[in-house]
Amino acid sequence: MSAIIEVDHLSKQYANGPRALDDVSLNIDEGEIVALLGPNGAGKTTLISIICGLVVPTGGTVRVGGHDIRTDWRAARKLIGLVPQEITLEPFETVMNTVRFTRGLYGAAPDDAYLEKVLRSLSLWEKRDAQTRELSGGMKRRVLIAKALSHNPKVLFLDEPTAGVDVALRREMWQVVDQLRRDGVTIILTTHYLEEAEEMADRIGVINHGTLLLMKPKAELMGEFGKKHLTIHLYEPLERCPPELTARGLTLSADGLRLGYDYDTRSDRTGIGSLLAELSGLGIRVRDVSTKQSSLEEVFMSLVSDEEKEGAA
Q: Are the C-beta atoms of residues 119 and 96 closer than 8 Å to each other?
């Protein structure tokens, strides 16, 4: 696949302020979903704002569909749709007119048939004549997406798209995003809901202090940084964890019926085979074993924590 977004050595230094971005480089392929994760103030929104032409970078270049965002900004901007974090809608305007107006801002010719398709895809068609002030928070966010899609962009940025939305609506929004991906739209989202990134993204980038720590396929990231937890279920309870097992890092549950063991998936030898053999040698009968993969949240916290420690060193 060809890259639709090319970011090369991008930096942003605010006057009398912090360095918001520090030498960020990345490519985003056409049709993929990329999630950008990072703490508040990490530089996620600054990166999106620069690509969308809302903030001027201090250094580096950005190309969207081959168009430089500074020297060929009009062509680049037409390829981009942005769903901002804040809900900003004219309260007394209808949904349809709101979307029509945004399409006109991009110089696109009127096309109510296309706008109907967009509104139907977002379950907004029945609300087309409603004033935006009459809509629920979830519906308002759908209108923001409709506005961003009104000129048929190739790239859609979602800045915290489900902030303040309840769980049910969040799931519905994920379905909307998945449909957009099937329609060929490239999607870049920032989110504080790590399960959102884990659910939807093809690749995940982690930003902290303006630095892109990594950008990897989700499965690869989980494989490299994720750990697994092994739970060993016993037939008879143990009064205490034998010293030999404690030395291996095993822990015993309060009821004495489960032993816990964390191991690194990157290791060539997990030690599970020898551990089970040692349990047998100690006369401990194993009823069952189960494993659990680390969540993306644990992986993310590990990455940010390691970066903080390096910065303090």
A: yes
